[in-house]
């Protein structure tokens, strides 16, 4: 097993680049997404949002609020029906998208060994390193399974590998769409620790969760959506102590959100 190290085995792209080359701030203006099913329903409805480097952003809201859609729009996986998103004043290009990473609720892995999943990313970075790969896997509690096929891992282990692979890209911005839903407590803890460390190392984290306890542990700021609209964007302390909207108050109290 590789020797334990105090620092994280990953750091953000922004740690080595000048301010003029960085992605953030990200500014969404009038962001709208209409369902392409003939219903003409606005699933994202005129959102204005500014995300800056530093604070860990947790996105919350009831089912159907538009949380996952917002992440996909920001990451460029789908195009808005109206409005725009600018990253440090420019549209999202292929180069800028490569400096982002996304982890989905259901992990997407290569049909290779655990180690090969990380090797693939390190080769893309042009910095293949067995030592770095093993340190990354060790940090995620996967070193002993490095030779195992990724598909044979448990659900929690697969999600940890998906996160490890995303972090190995050294992204400046990382989107996480409910990455710990239905996972065992040990995996949740490892993922939360890795996310916190990535934030400390300079990666901007945008994290969707339904888990209020998790949101309280992780969030520096909260974006609260309901029915495709942005109702709150405030510090975590303010949101949890005194939310402005009745919908957010109902959500935090466990009541039906209308």
Q: What does this entry look like structurally?
A:
With 258 residues, the chain is of the alpha/beta class. It has a domain of 174 residues: P-loop containing nucleotide triphosphate hydrolases (Rossmann fold), CATH 3.40.50. It has nine helices and nine strands. The strands form two sheets. It has a six-stranded mixed beta sheet, with helices on both faces. It has a three-stranded antiparallel beta sheet with strand order 2-1-4, with helices on one face. It starts with 25 loop residues before the first strand and ends in a 6-residue tail after the last helix. The model has no long low-confidence stretch (mean pLDDT 92).
Helix/strand layout:
Elements: E1 26-34, E2 42-51, E3 57-60, H1 67-74, E4 82-87, H2 94-97, E5 100-103, H3 114-124, H4 130-139, H5 155-168, E6 173-177, H6 185-200, E7 204-208, H7 212-218, E8 221-226, E9 229-235, H8 236-241, H9 246-252
Parallel strand pairs: 3-7, 3-8, 5-6, 6-7
Antiparallel strand pairs: 1-2, 1-4, 8-9
Helix pairs in contact: 3-4, 3-5, 5-6
Strand order in space, largest sheet: 5-6-7-3-8-9
CATH class of the domain at 53-67 and 94-252: Alpha Beta
Determine the fraction of residues in helical runs and give it as a percent range: 25-40%
Instruction: Give the CATH topology of the domain at 53-67 and 94-252.
Output: Rossmann fold
Radius of gyration: 18 Å
The mean pLDDT is 92
Q: Quickly give the structural class.
A: alpha/beta
Largest sheet: 6 strands, mixed
Instruction: Count helical runs.
Output: 9
CATH homology superfamily of the domain at 53-67 and 94-252: P-loop containing nucleotide triphosphate hydrolases
Gross CATH architecture of the domain at 53-67 and 94-252: 3-Layer(aba) Sandwich
Number of strands: 9
Shape: globular
Strand content: 15-25%
Q: Segments where pLDDT lies below 50 for 5+ residues?
A: none
First-last Cα distance: 52 Å
Order of helices and strands: EEEHEHEHHHEHEHEEHH
